[in-house]
């Protein structure tokens, strides 16, 4: 006998549909759970609520026919794992690498990504961070429109494909972090809210917010938490990146994020390996990453957009939108020593005060920093990378500051070789009305910032997706290979010198002047000249030798360093 269950607390009738058989009436039980046992169940199934429309299981583990098709039973225990000796990978000290499965390789699958893992091992990264892989409607998408939260996207390779990728990554010593979205459902194929009140009346920029504190929210919270535990337990992933947690309104005494942290801690103890929870948040609220015993939520890290903005504005000169308050050496110094720039200070973009100070005892590895990521590239009108506007020299300066900062550094796929391919916003909604709305909305958004509609790529045009694929042949070109080799040496140096990954914010001393900065990291100094002219910079100590320089012509004379234009160096005292 096979038991089928589904949570539908407000339904008056629920039936189970199996291929080639009469529908089975399900029995209502405690807590709004409906159950039925059937013999010879087969593989595919669907549920019917109060009418004759067959719907996939909200907790479906496998959607081989897409998000509108029937669900298929899947046995997690049947996969033959080879990573039994894997003891995990902790976030502190790690270098992250964000990638989108669909554009990381020409094939766009989990199995194809396995073929590029040796490249990442050689580069020196420790953990890969996958953009969302749960099932969404259409063939290609960023992944943030997922609707079947428990089922890996079938065109990527489905459940077994994801497991093969994780298993292969562990075999090569790489941890895997998975991006997950719990703030909204995508616009097509979101059948879960038909079963139960998964949605609240509040809105996010992407749709209705998930019901975390209203009637029946206990079941919704259990749905989210069970999904968290599934990825970590059944798919062996090493951590989750929680998308836009500021768009998860929760007025209950114990926030869902804290509940998740508690259950993940228990699972980590049981499995005997570290499990990491990383939040994306624009609140600048250190309580997210403060220990629960200190009144925080107990998450392990959060993305730090302030670090990105401080570096981006200095490198590019851009000041529009939310970049307006950034762009000075003083700003970068504050971020390097205090993690956030907005710490209860005025935000001209928000027209209000923003943020909260970080306790200087907070380890910097709890902040994930980056020069580029999927948002900061893909949400630009044309999806242009920094390599489209910055010189190779400035790109190396930026990379040096990123890798020697006290944070957890992250690269975006292709950044290590200065990829020339853009990463644009792409969708493949099959519904004509939804497709048209996405195209119109995207162009209207950028028209408000002065972009002609014809200059904004059509998200629904397949070529927008194709253009966004990495071109791995670029690694055979000298200029790209040189950039890759530089990143490899930089990461290796970071790992060989404990000072360069020391997370203690209070131990960092930063001095700066006109477009130059000197950051002391123990017995190492990081000197950076962002100006378009050579500069002589006085050092707070006597330099013994240059450990790494981003370009030629760097010289040191006791407590002085000569830095050519757009050059950085790491020196030993």
Structure description:
By secondary structure, this protein is α/β, with parallel strands linked by helices. It has 14 helices and 30 strands. The strands form 8 sheets. It has an 8-stranded parallel β-barrel. Strands 2, 3, 6, 7 and 8 form a 5-stranded antiparallel sheet that branches. A 5-stranded antiparallel sheet has the order 23-24-25-30-27, covered by helices on one side. Strand 16, helix 7 (256-271) and strand 17 form a beta-alpha-beta unit. The relative contact order is 0.09.
Number of helices: 14
- Distance between termini? 72 Å
Q: Low-confidence spans: pLDDT under 50, at least 5 residues?
A: none
Total strands: the figure is 30
What's the helical proportion of residues?
Answer: 25-40%
Radius of gyration: 25 Å
Provide the spatial order of strands within the biggest beta sheet: 9-10-13-16-17-18-21-22
Biggest pleated-sheet summary: 8 strands, parallel, barrel
Q: What structural class do helix, strand and pairing data support?
A: alpha/beta
User: Given the C-alpha coordinates, what overall shape results?
Assistant: elongated
Overall pLDDT, averaged? 96
How much of the sequence lies in strands comes to 15-25%
Record the SSE blueprint:
Blueprint: E1 2-7, E2 15-17, E3 24-25, E4 27-28, E5 33-38, E6 44-48, E7 54-55, E8 71-72, E9 96-99, H1 101-104, H2 110-114, H3 117-123, E10 127-130, E11 134-135, E12 148-152, H4 158-171, E13 175-180, H5 192-195, E14 199-204, E15 207-210, H6 217-234, E16 239-242, H7 256-271, E17 276-279, E18 301-303, H8 305-316, H9 329-338, E19 343-347, E20 352-355, E21 367-370, H10 374-378, H11 392-404, E22 408-412, H12 432-447, H13 462-467, H14 478-496, E23 509-513, E24 516-521, E25 524-529, E26 535-538, E27 545-549, E28 555-557, E29 560-563, E30 567-572
Parallel strand pairs: 9-10, 9-22, 10-13, 13-16, 16-17, 17-18, 18-21, 21-22
Antiparallel strand pairs: 1-5, 2-3, 2-6, 4-5, 6-7, 6-8, 11-12, 14-15, 19-20, 23-24, 24-25, 25-30, 26-29, 27-30, 28-29
Helix pairs in contact: 6-7, 8-9, 11-14
């Amino acid at each position: 006998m096979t038991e089928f269950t589904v949570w539908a607390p407000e339904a008056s009738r629920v039936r189970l549909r199996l291929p080639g058989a009469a529908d089975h009436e399900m029995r209502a039980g405690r807590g709004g759970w409906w159950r039925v046992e059937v013999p010879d169940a087969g593989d595919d199934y669907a549920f019917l609520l109060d009418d004759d429309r067959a719907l996939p299981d909200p907790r479906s583990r496998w959607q081989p026919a897409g998000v509108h098709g029937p669900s298929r039973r899947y046995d997690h225990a049947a996969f033959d794992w080879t990573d039994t000796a894997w003891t995990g990978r902790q976030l502190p000290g790690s270098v992250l690498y964000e990638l989108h499965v669909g554009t990381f390789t020409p094939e766009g699958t989990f199995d194809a990504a396995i073929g590029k893992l040796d490249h990442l091992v050689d580069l020196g990264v420790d953990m890969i961070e996958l953009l969302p892989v749960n099932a969404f409607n259409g063939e290609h998408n960023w992944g943030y429109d997922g609707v079947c939260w428990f089922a890996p996207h079938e065109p990527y390779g489905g459940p077994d494909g994801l497991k093969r990728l994780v298993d292969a990554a562990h075999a090569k010593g790489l941890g895997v972090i998975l991006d997950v979205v719990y703030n909204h459902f995508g616009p097509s194929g979101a059948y879960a809210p038909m079963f139960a009140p998964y949605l609240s009346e509040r809105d996010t920029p992407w749709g209705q917010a998930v019901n975390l504190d209203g009637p029946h929210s206990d079941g919704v919270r259990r749905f989210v938490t069970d999904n968290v535990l599934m990825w970590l337990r059944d798919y062996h992933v090493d951590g989750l990146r929680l998308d836009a947690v500021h768009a998860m309104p929760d007025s209950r005494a114990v926030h869902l994020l804290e509940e998740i942290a508690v259950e993940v801690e228990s699972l980590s103890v049981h499995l005997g390996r570290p499990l990491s929870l990383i939040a994306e948040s624009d609140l600048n609220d250190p309580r997210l990453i403060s220990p629960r015993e200190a009144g925080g939520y107990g998450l392990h890290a959060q993305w730090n957009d302030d670090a990105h903005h401080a570096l981006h504005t200095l490198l590019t000169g851009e000041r529009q939108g939310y970049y307006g308050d950034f762009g000075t050496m003083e700003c970068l110094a504050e971020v390097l020593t205090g993690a956030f720039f907005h710490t209860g200070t005025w935000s001209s973009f928000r027209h209000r005060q923003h943020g909260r100070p970080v306790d200087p005892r907070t380890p910097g590895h709890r902040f994930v920093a980056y020069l580029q990521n999927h948002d900061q590239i893909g949400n630009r009108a044309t999806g242009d990378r920094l390599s489209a506007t910055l010189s190779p020299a400035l790109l190396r300066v930026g990379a040096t500051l990123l890798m020697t900062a006290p944070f957890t550094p992250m690269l975006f796929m292709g950044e290590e070789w200065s990829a020339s391919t853009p990463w644009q916003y792409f969708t493949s909604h099959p519904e004509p009305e939804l497709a048209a709305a996405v195209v119109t909305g995207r162009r209207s958004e950028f028209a408000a910032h002065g972009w002609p509609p014809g200059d904004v790529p059509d998200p629904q045009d397949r070529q927008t997706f194709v253009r966004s694929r990495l071109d791995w042949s670029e690694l055979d070109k000298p200029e790209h290979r040189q950039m890759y080799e530089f990143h490899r040496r930089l990461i290796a140096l970071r790992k060989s010198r404990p000072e360069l990954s020391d997370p203690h914010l209070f131990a960092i001393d930063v001095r700066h002047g006109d477009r130059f900065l000197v950051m002391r990291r123990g017995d190492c100094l990081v000197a950076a000249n962002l100006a378009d002219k050579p500069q002589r910079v006085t050092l707070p100590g006597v330099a013994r030798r240059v450990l790494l320089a981003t370009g030629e012509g760097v010289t040191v004379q006791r407590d002085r360093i000569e830095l050519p234009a757009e050059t950085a160096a790491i020196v030993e005292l």
